[in-house]
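forwarding from the other thread:

> can someone predict this with farnesyl diphosphate?

sure thing
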Amino acid sequence: MRIPQHLAIIMDGNGRWAEQRRLPRIAGHRRGVEAVHEIVTVCREIGVGNLTLYAFSSENWGRPDDEVSALMSLLSHYLRGELKTMLDNRIRLNVIGQIDRLPANVAAVLRETIAKTADNSEMTLTLALSYGARDEIVRTVRKLANKVAVGEITPEDIDETMLSAALDTGMLPDPDLLIRTSGEMRISNFLLWQLAYTELIFSDLFWPDFDRKALLDCLKEFSCRQRRFGLTGAQVKPEK
Ligand code: FPP
């Protein structure tokens, strides 16, 4: 089976999972955290080097206050609870998005976990938090424009490599595979630049039901895909 070097996941359907069971939406998010634990474990086991999870979008701030604060407290609880697992398994935590918009206590536990896991090199777990791809691109363009303004670079220096490196994901390879759960077939402002040549797989399962078997099924499908990057089938070397 071909293992993606970078797997990105849009974890969708927590709310509907809960509503189907007549439970409050937060019960779905709570089960969603258990799914996060399982999927991180499997990815580490099979050698996915980079896993990026869309945990909270810029648009999610518009949800009811009690849901937003419940998600924030689940997140800090998760980080505290998983630190030992991350250290034992040499997993590095990384964040993309506007960490400064998060409540101070959540930003603090994130910064602390990032610092404590910084030397780990087996797998990078990136959480997209208060993340929107258009916002990321705008912030990046502004950053490069400032460099031009102070004479550090010229407009002609700006190319795809420089822009890629200046994005929040600058240290990560582009995703080979994106999975979105819950049957919705949208990108929802996630990694718009980085997904240019990514394989997309949509699973009908709600995120709390997305388990080891579901992930391995997606990876089997990914293994059958031929990635051509705009070339012809005859030009590309078969991937392992
Ligand atoms: C989508 O379900 C899920 C989210 C908006 C949040 C994802 C968060 C978690 C899985 C838990 C916290 C994360 C970590 C990394 C510990 P939805 O609420 O949009 O579901 P719906 O579309 O059915 O309403």
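Helices lie at 14-20, 25-46, 65-88, 104-116, 133-149, 160-166, 212-224. thats all i got for now
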